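Methods: holo model generation. Sequences were used as deposited, without trimming of termini or removal of tags, and paired with ligand SMILES retrieved from the corresponding compound records. Each pair was processed once, and we did not select among multiple samples. The sequence and zinc ion SMILES for this entry were:
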Amino acid sequence: MGSKPRLGMWRASLPIVVGVLGLGLVAFSFLLPSQAMDQATPAPEVTDTVAADLEVTKAAPPSALPEPPQPTPGGPGGIDCGQVACVALTFDDGPSANSDALLDKLAELGVRATFFNTGRNTELRPDQVARQVADGHALGGHSWNHADMRKRSAAEACADADRTAAAIKAASGVDTILVRPPYGSWNDSVLAACTGKAFILWNVDTEDWSSHDPAKIADHAINDAKPGSIILMHDTVAETAQALPEIVAGLKAKGYELVTIPELFNEPIGPGQAIYSGLHP
Ligand SMILES: [Zn+2]
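and the model returned the structure below.
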């Protein structure tokens, strides 16, 4: 490790956890707010559900929302992802026409994930966002309509992120500070401008938006995963839901616990961070 990684909110808690400083440094060397990543050409993501969604009549938000369960740091049953190998499945771009099939499959498999919803699709399908929360999944925002945060002013990008978070709150009752920048495109000035937000990126891309092939999607998810990996998939790709049984079986066979993004860490995710992976043994 050449340069010291940026510690963000963890700095404040270091005096308390001096004993695990070494572990923390190793873990957070995977948080890579580097210029190299900033400059990388972002992978294109699907936006082809936009046309389909235009046909959907805008639904009214559910009138009475149950108190949402709040995902907490640390894995299910007290799993410590600093001690046990964990990975997090994440689904972008929804909710979509595929959401119910995807949520059914996750429930059947007993797996919880993290959904990065666009504001626009949240407004179109608030019931699915409420169901994501009711089923125990974690939520984040993915811009209002998939705009590249670096192709507009930082103020505009952050206002867009706030508007998206407000739509998610209206649909689900959940306040989320988590933002997945579309195309993985962000920079330090946008992150600094979006006060109160944390950017959640990924280090495994299943390329489901490109292949639409369940076998290839599963191969990437299972074989590219490392302890602490954040795995990128899309709510909008029907073949991803089809690949889930193989993905879950394959990851479990390799000894991974499947957790939500907040559960990848042992402390709440604070604002001002850009995260590509979680804690790992
Ligand atoms: Zn996307």
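Strands lie at 86-92, 114-117, 138-141, 178-179, 198-200, 204-205, 230-234, 257-259, 274-275.
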